Amino acid sequence: MKELIDKLYETQVLERKELVHLLNNFSADISDYLFEKSRLVAKNNFGNSIYTRGLIEFTNFCKNDCYYCGISKSNKNADRYRLSMEEILSCCETGYELGFRTFVLQGGDDGYYSVDKVVEIIKKIKSAYPDCAITLSIGEHSYESYKKFYEAGADRYLLRHETATDVHYKKLHPAELSLANRKQCLYNLKEIGFQVGTGFMIGSPFQTVENLADDLLFIKEFKPHMIGIGPFIPHKDTRFFNEKQGSLELTLLLIGILRLMHPKVLIPATTALGTIDPKGREKGILAGANVVMPNLSPVNVRNKYSLYDNKICTGEEAAECRFCLQNRMQKIGYELVIDRGDYKE
Ligand code: 5AD
Ligand code: FES
């Protein structure tokens, strides 16, 4: 097993069967051996700097019905909201003062926000904060729409592929959504010039280690600028309410593997990771992640953006999360930095 990790460290690649073997047979010892290397690679590329992104969850309306997600359209218990332009700009203002230089606009796939409306939001934020990067995380759109977002000033786009296996994708999504279209969107975003992030959940229902190996291989081939992964966590109002949540150990192992496969890629220690373990985000950083994405959404809507149960930070103000994370990072020897945190070759 250690030889496989050495090979990954030296060459940044493993064959599919080697990945499957590693995922099936890892132990605490092997994880520690991996994390020493993945942490070193992160340190060599980013020092002890942790990039931050201010997350603005601006709508929880969604026209899609992903089976795992708490804000999918068929959840009649979801209390729906949209932030106004003023509210979004006020989140940015607070965020800017707190040192954020990237704003992530995340939302359900909400038809209310036409291409023109999104373009207007991007332009307003960019003119008020020209030194900040804007990341969009608003799902699948046409090539033309993506291009308009980019031309309006959006810099980055997050769109997790969720699983790179067609049959698995179909078990997690209704028939209207396809892996082929998801991948086409990712390639379109890259061609247009966005810094692109993809990723997947660990422990989603029906997932096998072979699926995970294929996720890693798809990401290797796609070469994203950012990779977001986190454990699947059931939501009470979805058909997967009774499924098991993803494993902390496996999520951390995958962060370590991804860091060795992609030394310079931006990897967040996600909120979902912090939700399944009180020290989850710290453990993510120590496994090779280098980004945190605290929430800037107004406190009165926080608990409504509920993709999964027991999400952390739903009662805290933006400033509380910012300083909480600063303390958490300092305790493990890292610093939050005031920086756009762009991908660098
Ligand atoms: N558990 C964990 N992550 C989830 N996401 C959606 N629902 C859940 C869940 N129940 C993730 C998806 C999506 C991202 C915004 O949140 O991977 O891409
Ligand atoms: Fe939100 Fe700690 S990061 S309370």
TrEMBL record:
- For binding (3R)-3-methyl-D-ornithine, which residues are annotated in this chain's numbering? S137
Which InterPro entries does the record associate with it?
Aldolase_TIM, BATS_dom, Elp3/MiaA/NifB-like_rSAM, FeFe-hyd_HydE_rSAM, HydE/PylB-like, rSAM, rSAM_sf
Task: Determine if 4Fe-4S is one of this entry's keywords.
Answer: yes
For binding [4Fe-4S] cluster, which residues are annotated in this chain's numbering? C62, C66, C69
One GO term of the biological process aspect: sulfur compound biosynthetic process
Q: Report the CDD domains cross-referenced here.
A: Radical_SAM (cd01335)
Q: For the Radical SAM core domain, which residue ranges apply?
A: 48-270
- Matching Gene3D superfamilies: Aldolase class I
- What does this protein's record comment on cofactor binding? Binds 1 [4Fe-4S] cluster. The cluster is coordinated with 3 cysteines and an exchangeable S-adenosyl-L-methionine.
For activity, the cofactor(s) needed are: [4Fe-4S] cluster; [2Fe-2S] cluster
Q: Which GO terms describe its molecular function?
A: 4 iron, 4 sulfur cluster binding; metal ion binding; transferase activity
Enumerate the residues binding S-adenosyl-L-methionine: E162, R182
Name the SUPFAM superfamilies for this protein. Radical SAM enzymes
* Alphabetical UniProt keywords: 4Fe-4S, Iron, Iron-sulfur, Metal-binding, S-adenosyl-L-methionine
Q: What is the protein named? A: Radical SAM domain protein
Q: Which species does the entry assign this protein to?
A: Ruminiclostridium cellulolyticum (strain ATCC 35319 / DSM 5812 / JCM 6584 / H10) (Clostridium cellulolyticum)
Classification of source organism: Bacteria, Bacillati, Bacillota, Clostridia, Eubacteriales
